[in-house]
Amino acid sequence: MVWLLAAVLTSNVTFASGTEDINDESVAYQSLETNLSEEKQLLDVDSVEELNFTPNLKYPTNFKQTFGETAAPELNYLSDVKLGTAMNPAPGKKYQLTWMRTNEGVKAYKAMDDLTFAGVPLFLAGIIAKSEKKSFRQNTKDNKHTLITEFKTHIDDYSQFFGPVMTTGLKIAGVEGRSDWGRYLASTAMSYGIMALFVNGIKYTAKEMRPDGSTANSWPSGHTATAFVGATILHKEYGMTRSPWYSVAGYGVATATGVMRVLNNRHWVSDVLSGAGIGIMSGELAYAMSDLLFKGRGLLRGDISSDKSIIYNPSFFSVSMGLGLGTRNLDFDMSKFELSDFDGDKVLNLKFGASTAVGAEGAFFFNKYLGVGGRLRVNSSPIKGWDGIERFAWYDLASSLYGENYALQPDFRRFIDGDENSLPLVEDAFFTIKSDHITEFSADLGLYFNLPLSKRFAIGSKLLVGRSIMQELDLNATVTGGKREFLIEDLYNPDEEFTLAKAKPVPGRYTSEYDYFTLGGNNTMKFGTGLSLTYAYKENYAWRLFVDYDFSHKTYTMTYNPSLFALESIEFRSSDLDESISYMDFIESEDIADFAEIHKVKKNRNTFVIGGSFTISF
């Protein structure tokens, strides 16, 4: 890195293969009319005026002396070719790689011009959210449940690099951005260096355990920091100089990367928020350092300007990330599940942890005060209270196997214990948490309001109505043990009462996997509002801090099925046939459903989301 910075600081060399130094202008331009005609055909343009790549370039005096005042505008493009600054080389011409070229008319940045400090509140939000980390006991030898979330992807391992890949690809394609190669590489190296220093310094000092219990280097998220520093580089190079949609793409992919880190159970919400803050701060600090080091050298384009300030023309599109707080408890009376002799707490208390909220939002304003728009949001809440679920599960299993019937009925003891030729009915059992979050998907439409306070600040609000869709949470059971068998003739023997205990132990092992416990909420209407503070650091770019409130009335349904494994252990066989039929294939699906017990709780869902968004005007 040292040699790279040294080269950048000392170099003003143009690598332009195939470019000749024209010393004799009278010879080079003696056939101006012919050359212009040839270039016009080569570049496939209709008029010489379209060749004006740099309208602010001052024409050399000797051009005017040689060809006259009227010919000077037509020489603009030739001056570009001589200086090696043509943005799009003509077909068949060699690509020009330059190192620290500076285009005329591009104003040097001041170090404090683009420091928004937007990363600071995100980093602090991560610190505040650290108290919500203990959503689960980590797997230990003392418990027999494990966490295996159904969401598994490696996309986040690659999407973290979207920003630099996109930026470098555009530069290779010849699309001019803010900086020439030397300044761009120096800014990028400093961005990632600052980010790595912050992330690794905190990671190996704080030593926070990851939610999956794998390593003690969770906070802050390195993937998220990498994604957001890359998004900031793309924003600086092309979003601010070409189109704000480059910025939206960069920060959108970075936000998705952070969400995937949480859903993959690799990071807590606090890790992602702090990582995003570090990434943004690192990129801004590095570009401020480049402004101090290089002044105006190596700048190719300035910021795009707009007559429409986002404060007074507030139509917008934004991507957001926030911390969700609100409804904290959900209680189920387990005594309704016929566990009256259970000596523990009869109430199962599930607690909602702080949620990760990400979204996209936009609105069209009729004037500077009123508009209409909509919002898409995903709000994912971790659930505490699985120890209670596990406690009920083991009690149910033990009581169903070794309860009163076991002591009083010899046939039942044989059904449970097996014999010398068979395995016990339950040889092993464990529980798998297939999802540790209740996730809400919502879509809203409504009115948006804007009140300008100054040319930089505005207060906003909204009134929304929409639809809330919830994804259920699952706890699966896996039970293995010895098979049991019925003779089909016994089912139709009027002298024999059919009970499961009549099944005979037989050699063989079964494995039963089923939904032991599920929890979900119904899909409902929802209502929302919110307040926001917009800071426009450029005419059409802003950072927005917001507090949103959403209300919905939910019916939460818990489905509890502790003993389905017993059905899968049983097979039926006819005395004159060797083939057996599984009990699960023999009975109707409605009868299987009867083994499950269902409990519903109605509860208002109140959610506050505190967060920030990157906003552009359109």
> Which descriptor suits the 3D outline?
elongated
Work out the strand percent. Answer: 25-35%
For the biggest sheet, the summary is: 8 strands, antiparallel, barrel
**Helical region count?**
19
For the secondary structure, the number of strands is 16
Number of domains: 3
What's the Cα radius of gyration? 34 Å
The spatial strand order of the largest sheet comes to: 2-5-6-8-9-12-13-16
Described by its quaternary structure, the protein is single chain
Given helix and strand content, the structural type is alpha+beta
- CATH class of the largest domain equals Mainly Beta
Through-space gap between termini: 40 Å
CATH topology of the largest domain: Porin
Indicate the percent of residues in helices.
Answer: 25-40%
- CATH architectural arrangement of the largest domain: Beta Barrel
Uncertain runs with pLDDT below 50, 5 residues or more? 1-93, 134-148
Please tell me the overall pLDDT. Answer: 76
Could you characterize what this model shows?
This protein is 33% helix and 30% strand. Residues 1-93 and 134-148 have low confidence and may be disordered. Strand 8 (437-452) and strand 9 (457-471) form a beta hairpin. It has an 8-stranded antiparallel beta barrel with strand order 2-5-6-8-9-12-13-16. The chain has helices at 2-10, 25-28, 32-43, 61-67, 76-83, 119-128, 155-159, 162-172, 181-206, 222-239, 244-263, 269-294, 386-402, 404-408, 410-417, 488-491, 565-568, 583-586, 589-593, and strands at residues 145-147, 316-326, 329-333, 347-352, 355-365, 370-384, 428-433, 437-452, 457-471, 473-487, 504-521, 524-538, 541-560, 570-573, 580-582, 597-617. Helix 10 runs antiparallel to helix 11 and helix 10 (222-239) crosses helix 12. With 618 residues, the protein is α+β, with helices and mostly antiparallel strands. The chain has 3 domains: 17-83, no CATH class; 108-134 and 148-305, no CATH class; 317-618, Porin.
